[in-house]
Amino acid sequence: MARGGGGGCCPPMDLMRSEAMQLVQVIIPSESAHLTVSYLGDLGLIQFKDLNAEKSPFQRTYAAQIKRCSEMARKLRFFKEQMSKADISASPTQLNESHLKFDDLEIKLGELEAELTEVNANNEKLQRTYNELLEYNTVLQKAGEFFYSAQRSATAQQREMEANQSGQTSLESPLLEQEMSTDPSKQVKLGSLSGLVPKEKAMAFERILFRATRGNIFLRQEPIDEPVTDPVSGEKVAKNAFVIFYSGERAKAKILKICDAFNANRYPFPEDVNKQLHAVQEVSGRISELKATIDMGLAHRDSILKSIASDFEQWNHLAKREKAIYHTLNMLSVDVTKKCLVAEGWSPVFAGVQIQDALQRATVDSKSQVGSIFQVLNTKESPPTYFQTNKFTSAFQEIVDAYGVAKYQEANPGVFTVVTFPFLFAVMFGDWGHGICLFLATLYLIIREKKLASQKLGDIMEMMFGGRYVIMMMSLFSIYTGLIYNEFFSVPFELFGKSAYACRDPTCRDSTTDGLVKVRDTYPFGVDPVWHGSRSELPFLNSLKMKMSILLGVAQMNLGIVMSYFNAKFFRNSINVWYQFIPQLIFLNSLFGYLSLLIIVKWCTGSKADLYHVMIYMFLSPTDDLGENQLFSGQKTLQLVLLLLALVSVPWMLIPKPLLLKRQHERRHQGHQYAMLQGTDESVGAELGEHHDDSHDHEEFEFSEVFVHQMIHTIEFVLGAVSNTASYLRLWALSLAHSELSSVFYDKVLLMAWGMNNIVALVIGIVVFVFATVGVLLVMETLSAFLHALRLHWVEFQNKFYEGDGYKFAPFSFALIREEED
Question: What's the Rg (C-alpha) of the chain?
Fold first, then answer.
């Protein structure tokens, strides 16, 4: 069982420490193994270890069953493709325990696939024949027009020849024409081919025919008005109808090869007019018959797919469930007798009773004569980290886990992130008007969360929906800080009373702060509205926000150092308490804790001391008098003491810890260098062997490496104390930028449009103001403040105590499998 810490060092919180874990072993009889793993998957509280890691997937016990599951998954994917083609969606049925067995489902899927494949093959054949007949019908029409026009021109020519023959033959008449007219037997018999060729290939087709036959053909082609469905590809293609007249079999063979090369579909065309009419009638009749047959086939296919769609989700869930079960069974080791399986895995301590109940139910339901054996193993392995989160805390925990998963039972920053993350965001985004807009948008996501959770959302919308409670907290804190800053879209309001200042006389209204005197008590909450628009607004707010940023930063860094104390106490590491926590706390507060104290004293006393001068000369001239920069008596002595403590704390962090670690190592392994005696008992030998291996591992302890590591850690903390404090000034910078941008949009867009006394300009101004507010302030500024708050937590806060080198608890759970599918 994993070692627990001294839990009394900090208040009990569900998220403060990860759940106590234990390594368990379960010995399961073979006849109840499948049902046992199924019940454990429903429970979802055990993470199985792979005890067959040295075996390939094909050498494992249940490789054949996994292959069957993969084949079923392939068939289900085939059904899904067919349903999407037919525009049939799977019925969203409630997933219940299916009474259909795995073998029966396999047979049923095989029968449905065979039937659907046969129906599709028949439909494809019929559709191809149907498309060929449509093309044939088009060819008959177009070629009929060719022959009809040719016949008319031939008849007219014949009449002209007869008219010439009836008259006296003139010397200008061609001799050949006379000979042909007198001897019809010498006329050449021409063959013909007709069909369709793709329009984009028509010119090349004609050119190749002309070259191959040396011009001894007559080609007539005409484009078809609408694209036709190609029988081979099934796609709509623009084509030309053609008729080729040729002489001789050699020319015919060449033309046939060229037609094949250009994917020109050929169709027979009878020369006799009666046969043409008969062919047209026959083709039209076959087209109508095939159309009816195809419609019946499609209706039959749709009925099969609808019957599949009603149970598809159930079958898909069962197939994936079975595959997950067999994958898990493959991780179990088989006993030598092959009568039982041995499983090992991690589970929370609180789940022990639930796991044993599931094992008992599986034994009863499978009618096994032998029950499963459950036992807890002792181990030195590091357990996985498991936090029980809900829909509110899960998003905050994901923010922490994105940096690194907490080490087992390490103090979890997520507890504080729930409050500090939205608060630091709000410090940079302080405007209660913008906060209300964010809150309303988030409220919509929260109210409709059940409906939205079941829908497919886009990537950005999915992220927003997952972090809806984070955004809600950010918006609420933004309203709070906006009330403190007294900004509503950059406009101040007297919400908590009247301003403490008023004009001495009526002339002061034109000169902002000149002539203002304090006539009432201090404004009760937040910034007095009279500061906004005054000459000293920027210097006052700059000073306020900058000092406030330093105070917040020092407070959060101190919290991080205090959490390192709780970690050290929990893991009983006194070295880290005395030689890491205490010197770090002294160093940080000797410098920046002192600066925070000066800021508070200056605010309380109203002193005009220059804090920059105080901090700089604290290092450069610590013994000089402070003069007018002295805030309280004894300040010079306090500065000397703090400076001395800061200087002492650096070697305090650097030197003792490596020496003590070396001494601790030598003490721990002082008696482990002796060899084992001959004939030692096996169990004792194994235990000593374990210690021997441990001592061998610790012999790799290198003092130089430990010292260098500690030196790097010390330098990083000393320099980081300065840089991290300066990094918190981003709170001031982004707050100022947000306020100024909001003020610019209000003054230079909305008020300027209002002052034009033009309705069109006013409408344009309002539209520009709305788009600028939403696009820049509510989207870009929100993202910017979010990323900066994220950096402050990951770098400035968490690096004080958080190692984040653990790994997540990943239990075998059917619920998690369904979530991954969604």
Answer: 44
Domain of 42 in residue numbering reads as 21-110+298-377
Secondary structure (DSSP) of 173-237: S-HHHHHHHH-GGGSPPPEEEEEEEEGGGHHHHHHHHHHHTTT-EEEEEEE-SS-EE-TTT-SEE
Neighbours of 802 (CB within 10 A): 23
pTM above 0.70, yes or no: yes
C-alpha angle 560-566-572 in degrees, rounded to nearest 5:
140
What is the H or E stretch that residue 516 is in? strand 516-518
Residue 192 covered by a domain: no
Contact 1, 23 (CB under 8 A): yes
Helix (H, G, I), strand (E, B) or coil at 24: strand
Task: Decide if 649 contacts 584 (C-beta within 8 A).
Answer: yes
| Res. 9: pLDDT tops 90 | no
Within a domain: 757: yes
The DSSP call for residue 44 is: T
Give the count of domains, the chain.
2
3-state class (DSSP) for residue 100: coil
CB 40 within 8 A of CB 46: yes
Helix (H) or strand (E) holding 334: strand 333-334
Query: Helices 273-329 and 33-43 meet at what angle, rounded to 10?
Result: 90
Residue 168 pLDDT > 90: no
Selection from 564, 548, 505 nearest residue 735 by Cα: 548
Alpha carbon distance 545, 86 (integer Å): 63
Contact 161, 181 (CB under 8 A): yes
Distance, in Å, from the CA atom of 197 to the CA atom of 265, rounded to the nearest integer, reads 7
Residue-wise pLDDT tens digits, 385-423: 999 999 999 999 999 999 999 999 999 999 999 999 999
Mean pLDDT within 113-124: 93
DSSP string, 736-788: HHHHHHHHHHIIIIIIHHHHTT-HHHHHHHHHHHHHHIIIIIIIIHHHHHHHH
User: Do β-strands 265-267 and 340-348 pair in parallel, antiparallel, or remain unpaired?
Assistant: unpaired
Q: Does residue 681 fall inside a structural domain? A: no
pLDDT at 15: 85
From the centroid of its chain, how far is CA 103? 36
Judged by DSSP in three states, 549 sits in helix
C-alpha span between 177 and 165 (Å, rounded): 11
Q: How far is CA 105 from CA 76, 318, 416, in A?
A: 11, 9, 50
Domain match, 620 and 766 both = yes
Domain boundary among 327, 345, 377: 377
Residue at 200: amino acid letter = E
Query: Angle at which helices 537-570 and 414-428 pack, to 10 degrees?
Result: 170
Last-in-domain residue among 355, 377, 399: 377
CA distance 769 to 746: 7
Determine how many CB atoms are found less than 10 A away from the CB of residue 674: 8
- Helices then strands, counting H and E runs in the chain, come out as 28, 13
373 domain-assigned: yes
Beta strands in 584-679 (DSSP E): none
Give the separation between CA 333 and CA 637, rounded to whole angstroms: 71
